[in-house]
Structure formats: structure tokens, C-alpha cells
Amino acid sequence: MSNFSNLDYFSLVAALLFTALPIHTANADGNPPLMQFNSQSLETIEQRFGSERLLVSLWSIDCPPCLKEIALLSRLLGDGASYQLVLINTDGPGARAEAESTLAQFDLPGSSLWIFGEEPAERLRFSIDPDWRGEMPRSYLYSTTARVAYSGLLQESVIRDWLDQ
Amino acid sequence: MTATRLIKCICLFTGLSSALGFAPVIADSLDCAQKVSLHCGNTPSATFDDDGTLWVAFEYHDHVYVTSSDDQGQSFSEATAVNALPEKIYARGENRPKIAVGDSNRLFVSWTHQRPERFSGDIRFAYSSDGGYTFSVPITVNNDGLITSHRFDALYVADTGDVFVSWLDKRDQVRVRAMGEHYHGAALYYAVSNDGGESFTDNYKVADHSCECCRIAVTGSGPDKAKVMWRHIFDTNTRDHAAAVLSADGSSTMVRGTRDDWQIDACPHHGPSMAASNTEGVSHIAWFSDGSRHRGLYYKTLNIEQPMQAEPRLMDDRPGAGHPQIASAGDRTVYLWKFFDGKQAQLLAATSEDDGVSWGERINVMSTAGGSDHPQLVTLDQRIFAAWHSDNEGFRFVELQ
Lengths: 165, 401
Known about the structure:
Chain A is an alpha/beta fold. Chain A is built from 6 helices and 6 strands; from the N terminus they run H-E-H-E-H-E-H-E-H-E-E-H. Helix content of chain A is 38%, strand content 18%.
């Protein structure tokens, strides 16, 4: 006979569920479903992954250079580059299906994938960076000392230099 | 929570809100399940006809709708669907349905049909000759038969009655890539209807290498031509603006409109705005740049003959400022834009009484705490109005005194 009461088991399971990030089952395309980004999410992301080799990239469905950047980031991951990729789509909840199917063409192992939630887009952008004027792709390369912002398609050399730091 | 408790909570909230003077402004119908209206629809575009009736086109659930108002936007008629058969329509940010009025109050509507393929679309057009009761079966204006991007339509009716539709087109990118070469951006195309919208001419190319997803600004050039302005890709990646005068016969002249030196391979999603001035051949223009020369929202006059003559004027350099619109009526020119202050989105306006030489202080026209659309300026004779759709308040139409 167990020494644990039913309540103890329940508490243990509940504790495990609440402390872990949501674990999504993969959709048919291999990538997990996009998590909803709200104005506290960047803090959650930074706490979860720390600033070691964290690369946050914002993209939109209607942004050809954004897709080029995702292709580059995906290729680098495939080449064995060791960094944490966070992709955030800015089109909002109505575009979820399109955003997921757009990402389906890319291999993004270990990446954390998000989509802007219900709050106004400008509020979500502001929560990420009050100095950002909305152009995309917009990327943030983290190091232990700083976060550097880039507007426009990232150059591969810039990413490699950052990885080599 | 039981239904009774929920209802009590709602009553308490609205009661408290009213008592405190914060009663939410709820438009007459924010629920399109009851009745389709521009308050719950998407991305409205508005224009007045010669009789002072306000016409608004908007998108809702795969249809473009048109509604009208005889009291300057205080109340609206029942909305009529333009396309009888549903089709996915771009109604987001820079890309949205357009409406214009021609001779005998003929209504013209254009929009971009969203195809399932990536970055693909077709330019669609319909007209009404019975005051908006019925619309023609929509036609596709681009004639290349390719599944590619034909998007970001702009619509203008000349004094002659000719209808100009211009858009961003990727048929040339498809052609060049098929030869194994690189083609940067899209191309600016247009077509003309000289039979009241029944049919369109051939498609005419104005320029290769436009930026791919910013709205096109359009106004008139004399009684028979259109003038357009768009974000272009100069040199390798300099995303400054170009302008062109379009003739009904397919000929056009393009010039460089701004010199901001914004070198970037990115999507600003930020197209320009343009309005006629009191001087022939000169337009007022409003644009956004983040270039080495100019960062923020700018204004200047644009003379096609000497496009770089006027000195740009910085209107707002704050990162939260965007999506400028410009309009002129009589002696007034108004520059309107959105500004997010961290909590609220504000609609700001500045006015010039001397054709853009000097400008007054910026004023707050209206605000919202929720999400909102791009604003629009609409003129009627000497009067200028600001149109703005926001999630919480619906469609607001405010005269700028």
C-alpha cells in the first residue's frame, strides 16, 4: 500500500505540468504548433533560454526577405550551428494556419516558434523593442553582455561572427 | 461561473464604467453575425461622391462590401456585397479593397484576390451603375495568366472618366527566374478602362524592381492622367520612393521621388501617400523612411519636373509613429498619422494653411486602447475628414476643423 495519498499524486502531476513549458504534439508538417505571443512572452523566452546564443527573429507571411532569413537560419542549424532560434510571426491569430504552413517547408530542430496573439500588434512590438519601427525581418542576437538589433535580411557572416564570440 | 453571475458582472462593469465616464464607445453593430457592417468588417476605404454621399468599401468573410452614408459617416446603409461568389481577399495592412466614384456616380471597386500559393494574388475589379444596388461580375485585370503576385492595387478615376488601376506585379520575376537569373522585387504595372469599367486595356509596365509589399499612392495629373508613387529598389537595395505619371495610352515617365538612402533588404510594410496641391504639377507627399539621411515620417512637395527640389520636412521621428496620410482641400493640407505611446494608439494630425510651407502643432484626433487599422483622409469640397477603424470602437469618421 502506497504512503502517498491521491492528493499527493495529483499535486506532483500538477506541479510537473505547471513548471514545464507546454509540450505540443507536432503537427503533420513536423514543426510544433505556434505558441501565442503576448506582451510578457519575451521575458519568458529570455528566462527560459538565457542569453547564451539566443537569436530571436520576427517575420511576416508577406515578407519575402523574412523567408530568405528563415531559410538561412534553418540551413545553419542543419550545418550544426549551435544556437537557440526563436521565430515570432507578427501576422496575428487570424494568420495561424498560413504561418504554420509557411514554416512547414523549413527544418527547424529545437526552435521555439511563436505567433503574435490577440493584443494589438504595436503593443507586442513595443514589448519586444520600443525602438523598433516595424520593418522586417527584425532580429535580435543575444550575448551575455548585450542584445543587438538588426533590421533586414541578416548576413551569414554576421551570424557566424556572433556564433564565434 | 453561472450565467446569472456573469450577467451581474457585466452590468456592474458597464454601470461602473458609465459612472466613471469611461463608458466604452460601442459602434451600432460590432457583431457581424447580426448584420454585416463596416464596424466589424476589415480595412475600410472611403470616398465621397459629387453629391456628398460617403461610400465605404470593406472586407468581411471573403466578400468586399459597399455601404454608404448621407450624414458624413454618422450612420450607414445596409451593406451590399460586391462579389457574389466568395473569394479570399487581402485585407491586412498595406493591401485592402479600394473604392472610387466616376461620372454619374458610377462606383468602381478594386481588390486583390488572395490565391493559396505563396505571395500570389490577382487584381479584381467590379463597378456599379445603379448607385451601389448591384455590381458587375468581377473581372481580373492582370492578363498574364500566371499564378504569381499581382497585388496592392491602387484605383484612380481621372476627370475624363478613365479608370486607372495600378499594382505590384511579379510576372517579370517569374520570367527572369525561369532563365536561371535573379530578379529583385516586383514591377509596377497599370491598366486603363475607358468604357466605364466594362473592360480594361493591355497591362502596361511602368518600372522594374519595385519594393514588393507597400501600398501605392495615387492622385491625378491634369484632367486625363494619373500620378503614382511607390517604394522602389534603387541600386542594389536602396528602398527609396519613385513616382510616375501614367497616360491612358500606356506611356509613363518615372522619376526618383525621395533620396533617403535606405539600404536594406527588408519589408517596411510602409507605403507613401500623395495628394494634389494648388500648384499644377506639384503634389504633396508623405512617406516613411529609416535611411541614413532620413529617419521617421516625412513631408515634401513633389514636382515631377524637379522631384528633388523641395527640402523634406521631418514630421515625426519617434519609433512609434507610422502610416502617414496626406490630403488637401481648399487652402488646407492635413498630414495624419498613427502614433503608439506604449499604451494607446493615437491618431495625430498637423495642418498647413499655406500649401505645405509651414505647419501647425500636432493635435490628437482620436485614440484607442485596442488594435487598430491604418488611418485614411477623405475630402469633400473644402472639408477634410479622418477615417479610422479600431477593434474597440469600430469605424470612426471625424471632420478635421
